[in-house]
Amino acid sequence: MPTVAIIGAQWGDEGKGKITDYLAEQADAVVRFQGGNNAGHTIVIGDSVFKLHLLPSGVLREGKLAIIGNGVVVNIADMEEEIKQIEEAGLNVDGLRISDRAHLIMNYHKKLDGAEEIYRGKKSVGTTKKGIGPAYQDKIARYGFRAGDLLEPELIREKTKFMLPMKKDLMKLMGAESCQCTEEKFEERLIGWGEKYGKYICDTSVLINDMLDEGKKVLFEGAQGALLDIDHGTYPYVTSSSTVGGGICSGSGVAPNRIQKVVGCLKAYTTRVGEGPFVTELEGDEMIELQKKGGEFGVTTGRGRRCGWLDLVVAEHAARLCGFTSWAITKLDVLNDYDTVKVCIGYEIDGKVEKHFPASLAKLERAKPVYKEFPGWKSWADSESMAKSGMGALPENMVKYIKFIEEYTGIPADIISIGPKRTETIDRYGKWWN
Ligand code: IMP
To answer: By the 8 A CB rule, do 305 and 273 touch?
Structure first.
């Protein structure tokens, strides 16, 4: 029952898409277990460029299952657009499976997401406005619509009767854009989705566990990153799902003892989008330089990402919460032209050096990064030929940087990524599915 999981070790956008795509090549199924279409990755196949937000990466590979687990929130209307994009390129989504327990994102969730942000004013989270938070709110409040409901017209009618008036009142109260949809239209739409997409809806926990019993290879694809976790992230500047290791189990219906290898995706520097504390954040020209070098602009919102040095206090926090067995260190090439690169190894808070990531936002605001400096690596040849030759071909100072991350965290850097292409990857481990 080989299983591999990949989870972002920072605030998302660590380059998980490329690593997932690489590991997915040999997998029989790729499973998403949390989040929704707030995520985003670009996949290039031949001349076609696909921008996916909800559908798991595996959906573009023939013969693989692309599974949306129960922990995901699904916007069917937006999913239709992604499917259209794929079908227009001459591919199909035959491998798609959606958990009957996955909750749905409705239009009213999107509208309420925007309205909540306005209420928060200066304390806004900077959400993607995809309705993620309001959809999870309904799930916890025990009145969300689930994908399986789409197959039961009577249940849809029953729920619509109280949900739609309630949401309309709420939208009015919150000053959100009003919803003109009648109950009949709403029900019709949902029943229509059931007829169209019902063939993909099933008990994905049974499906995944059966696959594992048969010795099939299953890859779990995390979205966002550990520091955006609802419990362990920089609350309230987080997303509304469990992005850490435990989220795999609750979000896909797979027991903890079935999760074998957990790859932490760690970008060689740090970025975050939206608001919230960021101890190693750069300012002014330094920040713009790194943002440009790294092409740090969001796939989902197009927003420029905030950038700063690598933070190992963050990495330790993520590793402890997720049980990483390997690092995949990405975008090392972006740091190529620096004279000096810095790594944060502690936070100085009120005169004391803290090694663990604190819960208090006030402490994080006061925290000053304690840096270890490394000489940069300017001797860069061609990334593809370097990747082909392996670690020995990398600049000495880059190898020192990687080794320091390994020693500090006690986790091997099994995948090294030095460019966006698949051929710009060094796999030092190789036995992912043994
Ligand atoms: P939400 O997930 O749209 O509710 O947004 C909550 C926070 O998570 C905001 O700061 C977003 O910018 C951030 N966020 C959500 N999805 C991603 C992602 O895929 N990458 C990076 N940040 C994300």
So the answer is: yes
* Residues in the chain, total: 434
pLDDT tens figures, 382-393: 889 999 999 999
Distance, CA of 228 to CA of 132 (rounded, Å): 13
Domain boundaries, the chain: 3-95+203-427, 103-198
- For residue 305, give both structure tokens: 């990402």
Listed in sequence order, the DSSP H helices in 257-375 are: 284-294, 312-322, 361-366
For residue 53, indicate whether it is catalytic. no
Is 28 a catalytic site residue? no
Give the C-alpha separation, 421 to 345, whole Å. Answer: 30
> Of all protein residues, whose CA lies closest to atom 10 belonging to ligand 1?
274
CATH number 1.10.300.10 given to 103-198: yes
Residues 283-297: pLDDT tens digits? Answer: 999 999 999 999 999
Active-site residue identified among 41, 53, 103, 317: 41
Specify the DSSP class assigned to residue 394.
Answer: S
Ligand 1 centre to CA of 293 (Å) is 22
- CATH C-level class of 3-95+203-427: alpha beta
Element (H, E) at 396: helix 396-409
Please list the residues that pair with 417 across neighbouring strands: 425
Distance 302 CA to ligand 1 centre (A): 12
Q: Which atom of ligand 1 is nearest to the CA of 223?
A: 19
pTM higher than 0.90, yes or no? yes
Dihedral class, residue 91 (left if φ above 0, else alpha if ψ from -120 to 50, else beta)? beta
